[in-house]
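thought: fold this chain, then report.
action: predict
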Amino acid sequence: MQNGAQDQRSSAADQEFHTAQSFADTLRDQTQGYVENRKADAARLVSDVGDAIRDTGSNFDGLPQLKEFFDQAALGVDELAESISRRSFSEMYDEVHAAIRRRPALATAAAVLAGFALFRALNSQRVRPIPRSHAVVPVDVLPTPDL
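observation:
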């Protein structure tokens, strides 16, 4: 037989569970909205790159083979943008995961290259000191008396 204290504890636990569940649902909804917004931004960015490639190719009117190359490249980039906007995040994640499992050496090389590029980009903003052996020393370091 349950007494009143046990009844109050179980209702308090149920209330805490529902509060936690509501918080988790809200967090999941906000995360999915954020991912969808970033996915749309990525698709827009890739589409802009395709437009830039197409614009660059339009400058080669005198060279039809080169213009066709740029048009084909822009078409491929546009298809990538459409694919990004059409697929869900979990589908893209599964495809990347499968590609990494198929070619781990290529994935490692790409990760190392991306890390190196990021390292160089972050360190390029810092002012590097000039070694003393390469520093230009002004001629008039010490004042010379007028004779």
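thought: worth noting. The chain is about 75% helix and 0% strand.
final: tokens above.
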